[in-house]
Amino acid sequence: MANLRTAMDATFWDLNVSTPQAIDGVGRAIPGDPIPLDGARASRALRFQQISLLGNGFPLGIIPSFSPSINHKELGSFALQSLIGRAAIGNWWLGLIGQFRPKKLISSIKAEVSAAEEWELPLLKDVGKHFLDKSLYALGLTSQIALTPSSSVLLSTEKHGERKNRRTKAMLFHKLPDHDITLEAAWPELFIDRKGKYWEVPESISLDCSSLVTESGLRYRFGLHKNSGSPQAVDSTNTESPLALLPGLCAKAAFSYEKSKDLWRQKETKDDVAVETENGQVWHPTYDVRLKDPHAAISGIIGGTCEAWLRGDFNQSSSGTQRRGRFGADLFGSLCYTFQHGRFRNNFGDLSRIDTRLDIASASAVARKVVNLFSSAESNQSLNELSSPRLSFIFQQQLAGPIVFRVDSKFSIGSLSSKQGPQLEDLIYSLNYSLRLLGSGKVVAWFSPKRKEGMVELRLFEF
What we know:
The protein is mostly beta strands. The protein has helices at 6-9, 47-54, 103-115, 121-130, 270-273, 363-372; strands spanning 16-18, 26-29, 63-66, 78-89, 92-100, 137-148, 151-160, 167-175, 179-187, 189-192, 198-201, 203-211, 218-228, 232-233, 248-265, 274-277, 280-283, 295-312, 327-341, 352-360, 390-400, 403-412, 423-435, 441-448, 453-460. Helix content is 11%, strand content 48%. The longest helix is centred in the N-terminal third of the chain and has 13 residues, at 103-115. The N and C termini lie close together (8 Å).
């Protein structure tokens, strides 16, 4: 079913979103924005690990991606990534990823050759100089060391040739029996807002403690987050900075209760896995162990958040049109219906699945909007994006064998008094190639029309 935990994670600062704008393939959703699509969540595997495995199935180990180079349009949108080198000693490993954008190089060489009258040695030298243009390249270095069986440190840095500064990240992870503790820092941190626009915060530091989901479905999180410096729009347009990215120190806590109920389910049997043939029994497992049972189910999550800004800009944003209070508390909830036909075992027509999910990210904003429908004050209040519930659909259809076509879409239901119907907010198309040997692993090639971006990822035990 759709990942209900996103409902709570979206209120914090560490919800990773896939993006080819960064070498590590990760950006952060802005807390306080509507919940991102499930298909937009970044893989839990590090980009270095993904490319190490994906390179075995791509020519020369080169992985393509598609992302506009903002403010450097001559570089184009097409990029190629490859693993340049790696090293491992005991509990420590190091990996170097290289990226190349060929459009500018091809255009420059074509213009050079077209202008030349004869093929001579100086022409070859001039053509060779174009390969030295540093704006064509980007490098990402990642290193991890296991301090103890339950603790590790991850360091990464990346430098794009067309940009002045590099991006650096550090993370300390410690696993307790029932909790995960994470300390993260980035200089700068890359965020993605609900419109698909990118923001950079000069310094972002967070300390988080998250409980594991218990059998009862109860989960909680709490932590501190600090932003320093003024957030900058990557596209350099005069856009108002999101309140959550303004400088300040914030303490936040959240809890949630999650429950699911099968309406019906056809359990996998031994006869499904071991098929009798003329030559004896043949092992015939599903392509994905998480998609092995046809079923229909209802699931839901409800929870609450509270936050306190201990230091920072409390009054208003830079343009003066938005305000941020010192304290805040709210409730959220999601309801999901899942229907699956097929066991995803045969080569054709053995998987059709749809997940329908209703999200209310802010119960207080929805309540205020309902009250304003019956008063004249609605026109005098600024629009709160969280006041409209969101309806998401995930459709998956097997094309052939392990290949599945998937569409993630999200609609804003809008005002009850509006004559307009639901408005499409986001959409992601993807092709998934399930890796049967990994149990529940798949190669995902996705494209976002909203962001005009796409990339290839490896995802394990994820929908």
